[in-house]
Design goal:
Elements: E1 4-12, E2 17-18, H1 30-33, E3 34-43, E4 59-65, H2 66-69, E5 77-81, H3 83-87, E6 95-100, H4 107-111, E7 120-122, E8 130-132, E9 151-153, H5 160-170, E10 176-181, H6 192-199, E11 205-209, E12 217-219, H7 222-232, E13 237-242, H8 259-269, E14 274-276, E15 280-281, E16 291-292, H9 294-302, E17 308-313, H10 320-330, E18 331-332, E19 349-350, H11 360-364, E20 367-372, H12 375-379, E21 386-387, E22 390-391, H13 396-423
Parallel strand pairs: 4-6, 9-13, 9-14, 10-11, 10-13, 11-12, 14-17, 17-20
Antiparallel strand pairs: 1-3, 1-5, 2-3, 3-4, 5-6, 7-8, 15-16, 18-19, 21-22
Helix pairs in contact: 5-13
Length: 424
């Protein structure tokens, strides 16, 4: 059941995110640039609360998706969804504006700001359903398979910045697009990382697929998003992954990381060389996520076809010993790391007692590649370097794995270009 409260906006802050430069009208106001507005609201007192609860008004952080509920001003009366903040969820430390009662009920007037071609619903059959123009109808009627452009799949949104940075380093000038899937935040405007990467030219575009919404393009499916980005927009490579945050239950199948399984299968079916960006950690307090996370292990186990997986190696950083220790906790091969001379593709036995019965042969069948990463270069890039409260210094393996993924996707892109050149 929705947990809704009346509230009054008492403070407006800078936008959490904004439209990328490529989509900014020259005469746009600051308010029009905002994709997500940050607010402070004062909850109205609730009569008849149970004993022990504070009935006095309380000030709380809130966010508003401007495309859905409009731009709020101080004094506006709003309805906010308080569920996540009341539960103390790590990725939901704020209330979410459900409707602006002061200025958000003029549906007829709002129509004039829309697109007459919008005829597909996102968040359909919910109170936030809204019409979009799907990319599947924008020059994407014909399907040429195989697409044969490399596609990577992320486990967490926190991997995106390091991944895109490494891809740009390894493939200068190549155009990398981002397909936002389910598994984390659904609003496309909720990601400051996407904004930063678009501003710096490290992402060529942002398409939201399925239930995700608010990107530069709206796709009904992940397959449609990939076909549009790679086949119509001319991306050289794509990366699929959830928005910020992740849902999880601590069980092998009950988490947002399972969306990676679906995305990888879609990419494989479209004929895209497919890379899984492993979720790894040397600083997570939870044993199931240390070394190679059970999220990635489960996906690698269940995939119907092999994919490429990257491992970081040869870091030029004082934390190299920590990185090696983190990898040792995930892989063993006669007590040593896989040799670089073999490309890291030899059979690997896994230490995954915490995840339940392991099937090492199904994990080892994938194309394991090692890539050198440069953590100091990423640390000095100014891009986001924090995951779940841990900094790069706290969890070097997490960022090293994402950097390795970007480097290996660049390798796959180069291999494809070389193959095409040879055929010509």
């Amino acid at each position: 059941m929705l947990k809704l409260r009346r509230a009054t906006v008492v403070e407006t802050r800078h936008a959490h995110d904004a439209k990328p430069a490529a989509r900014r009208p020259a005469d746009a106001t600051a308010a029009e640039l905002e994709a997500e507005q940050r607010l402070v609201v004062e909850l109205a007192a609730v009569g008849g609360v149970s004993a022990g609860q504070d009935a006095a008004p309380a000030r709380r952080e809130a966010i508003a998706d401007v495309a859905l509920v409009g731009h709020a001003q101080v004094g506006d009366e709003v309805i906010v969804n308080t569920q996540a903040l009341d539960l103390g969820l790590g990725s939901g430390g704020f209330d979410v504006v459900h409707v602006n009662l002061t200025r958000g009920l003029a549906g007829e007037a709002a129509q004039s700001h829309g697109d007459d071609a919008a005829n597909v619903m996102k968040l359909n059959y919910t109170s936030l359903q809204h019409a979009v123009v799907p990319v599947e109808g924008a020059g994407g009627g014909s399907l040429a398979l195989p697409i044969e452009r490399p596609t990577a799949v992320l486990a967490l949104h926190g991997q995106l910045a390091a991944f895109a940075f490494a891809f740009a380093q390894g493939a200068p000038g190549a155009r990398l697009g981002f397909v936002q899937t389910e598994g984390g935040a659904l609003p496309g405007g909720h990601s400051r990382t996407v904004r930063a990467l678009r501003e710096r030219g490290l992402l060529a575009g942002h398409v939201t697929a399925g239930a995700a919404f608010g990107g530069e393009g709206e796709a009904m499916t992940t397959a449609g998003a990939l076909q549009h980005g790679l086949g119509v927009l001319g991306w050289d490579a794509a990366v699929c992954g959830p928005g910020p945050g992740i849902v999880g239950s601590g069980t092998p199948l009950g988490h947002g990381g399972m969306v990676a399984l679906d995305s990888a299968h879609v990419a494989l079916a479209l004929g895209c060389p497919t890379l899984l960006v492993a979720r790894m950690s040397s600083g997570d307090e939870r044993s199931r996520h240390r070394g190679l996370s059970h999220h990635s292990l489960t996906v690698l186990d269940l995939l119907l076809e092999p994919v490429t997986v990257a491992l970081p190696a040869g870091m030029r950083s004082p934390v190299g010993a920590d990185l090696r220790a983190g990898l040792q906790s995930a892989f063993r091969s006669g007590g040593t790391m896989p040799s670089e001379s073999s490309g890291g593709q030899q059979a690997l036995a896994l230490q995954v007692e915490q995840t339940g019965p392991a099937r090492p042969a199904r994990i080892a069948r994938h194309d394991w590649r090692r890539a050198r990463v440069d953590l100091p270069a990423y640390a000095s890039s100014g891009l986001p370097a924090q995951t779940m409260g841990r900094t790069l210094a706290d969890d070097p393996l997490f960022f090293a794995a994402a950097l390795a993924g970007g480097s290996v996707l660049a390798e796959l892109a180069a291999e494809l270009s070389e193959a095409v050149a040879q055929e010509a």
